[in-house]
Amino acid sequence: MAPIALGSPINRHTQLKKTDQDIADGFGTRAIHVGSDPDPNTGAVIPAISLSTTYKQDGVGNHKGFEYSRSGNPNRSALERTLASLESGGAYGLAFASGSATTATVLQSLGPNAHIVSVNDVYGGTFRYMTRVAKENQGLETTFVDLENADEEQVKHAIRDNTKLIWIESPTNPTLRLIDIPRIVAIAHTHPSHPLVLVDNTFMSPFYSSPLMQGADIVVHSLTKYVNGHSDVVMGAVILPSHHVELEERLAFLQNAIGAVPSAYDSWLAQRGAKTLHLRMKEHGRNALLVARALEKSPYVKEVIYPGLASHPRHELARRSLSPHAARFVQAEAEHNPDGSFPYGGMISFRIQGGIEEARRFLSATRLFTLAESLGGVESLAELPALMTHGSIPPAERASLGIGNDLIRLSVGVEEAADLVRDVEQALQVAVEGPSRA
C-alpha cells in the first residue's frame, strides 16, 4: 500500500512512542499509568476531559499538538497510548466511534476490488459489512473458511493474487471456535500474496491474549466490551506493531478523513475502564469457569462450549494461546483446578435440552443474567444468537455453523460466582421442566 500523509502535522509516532519503562512494567501497572501522566498545570492524577473542538495556534501551523478534535483530541490520544501499551507487541493505537466503524475503516483501507479470507464463524455485524456494504461499495470479495479445521492446503487455496487480508476471530462469536493464530500467520506470510493477518481480540481482551506476539499484523477490538467494561460506551480500536508505520499512517488518515471518531468523554470513560481490566478479566474468568462446570454437570444441557474446560477438544490450544501475563495468572489458579481446567475469559455458549421454546424460557427465567445483546460488562448477560446478534446471517449458513435455536450465549459478569451458578441452575430447571418443578 502506498503511504498516505496524515491530514494533520501531529507526529503520532512521537506521541505514541513507548518508553523502556512502559515495556518493563506489568500489565496492570501499564493499564493504570500509561496515558495518565499527572497534569503538569494542576497535578491532577486523572486526565481532565477536554471538550474543546478547536485549539489556539501561536502561529500558522505552530500549535501544541492539537488543531481540531476530529483530527486529534487529548483524551483520545491518551486512550490510544493506553491501548497500544496494553496490547503486548503494540506500538500504535487508533480509536474509533464503534467496533463497526473500526471494521469499516480497516476494510476501506484495502482499496477497491480486493479479496479477503475470513473465518466462517465471524460476528454477524462483520459478516454484514463484508458481504453487503464492502462488497457493494468497493467490490470487496470475501471467502469464508473454517480456519479452525482447514488444513494448510485448504487455507492456501483460499488465498488469491489479490488477497490483502485474513480476518480471524479467536474465539469466534458465538460458537467459541479457536484458531491457531501462529499457524495461519505462517501460511499467510510465506504465501506469494503475503496478506496481512488481522485478529479481532474482543472476546479475550488484551489480558488473556496477545495476537501481535503470535505474529498477527493488526488487532481490533470492540472497546464497548471488556476494555471499557461497564456497558456505557460504544467504541472500537485498531492496534498495530511498530513495523507497520505505513499502515498506521494510512489508517490514521482514514480515521481523520472519515471522521468516525469517539467523543472526548467516551475516550475518558474507556480509559477509566481500562485501568481495572486486569482485575475484571481475572474475575470474569473465575466466574465463567464455575458457571461452565455447573452447566457441564446439568442434565438440562446438551453441550457446553468453554475452551478453559479440560473436556474442551481444543483445550491445549487455548492454553498455548494465553498471553504471558494471563499464563502466570492461570498457573497461580492451578491449585483450585486439579483437573487442568482454567479461567479463559468470560464467554460461554451452551446448547440447552430441547429447542427454541426451552431457550426462550431459560432467557426469561434468569434473574441475574439479563436478556440483552452485547457482552463484556461487569453485569452478566444472556442472549439467543440465532435470533439476536447473528440474525443477519442467512438461516442455512447459521445452521452450518452450529448457530441453532438451542444455542445460548452467556457473558459472565463479576457478580458473586455462587449467585450466578444458582441463577443458571434454577433457570435451566424452569426452562426444561416448567415453572412448577423449579
UniProtKB/TrEMBL annotation:
InterPro entries attached to this UniProt entry: Cys/Met-Metab_PyrdxlP-dep_enz, Cys_met_metab_PP, PyrdxlP-dep_Trfase, PyrdxlP-dep_Trfase_major, PyrdxlP-dep_Trfase_small
Pathway per the UniProt entry: Amino-acid biosynthesis; L-cysteine biosynthesis; L-cysteine from L-homocysteine and L-serine: step 2/2
Protein name in the entry: cystathionine gamma-lyase
Record CDD domains: CGS_like
Keyword terms: Amino-acid biosynthesis, Cysteine biosynthesis, Pyridoxal phosphate
Keyword Amino-acid biosynthesis among record annotations: yes
GO molecular function, one term: pyridoxal phosphate binding
Organism: Lactarius akahatsu
